[in-house]
Amino acid sequence: MSLSKPTEPNLPLGANVLSFDTFWKWLQGHPNCIVSAGTPEVVLFDHDDFHWHFGEGEEGTLLVQVIRGKNIVGELVIDPRHISYVQTEARGPEEFAFDCIEEAPDGPAVACSFVLSHDYDPQEAAPQGRWVH
């Protein structure tokens, strides 16, 4: 199976639209800011006893894991080749949604979504370790 590049977004990347690569690099510095992560079928929620872990799986997939101690509580597997862009939306003063959009023949659909306690800050886009908010 050959790996293909992500599809190009039909929307211009603007204030509330990010490339998936930019979002993913930024997200890895903010694991403590994640409130929930999920797909249309399942959602993983944060808890005081849990921590979020990012990794890579086979064939270029990306992993988002919720871990308690050394036990995996839940895991999302994301194929970045199918994500065209990430759209952001403020849902409240401390709730910001990041929807990873897949452009299908019948229109855009949310492949997975992350809710964080703060919005994206382009000044934090460069990998510099983990941010604390």
CA-CA gap between termini? 41 Å
Classification by helices and strands: mainly beta
| Poorly predicted parts | 1-13
User: What value does the average pLDDT take?
Assistant: 86
DSSP E strands, number:
9
Order of helices and strands: EHEEEEEEEE
The order of strands across the largest sheet is 1-7-8-9-2-3
The helical percent reads under 10%
The protein's oligomeric status is: single chain
Alpha carbon gyration radius = 14 Å
Annotation field: number of helices: 1
Broad shape: globular
- Strand residue content: 35-45%
The biggest sheet amounts to:
6 strands, antiparallel
Structure description:
By secondary structure, this protein is mainly beta. The strands form 2 sheets. It has a 6-stranded antiparallel sheet with strand order 1-7-8-9-2-3. Strands 4-5-6 form a 3-stranded antiparallel sheet, with no helix packed on it. Helices cover 6% and strands 44% of the residues.
Secondary-structure topology with pairs:
Layout lengths: L16 E2 L1 H8 L6 E5 L4 E3 L5 E6 L5 E7 L2 E8 L6 E8 L2 E10 L2 E10 L17
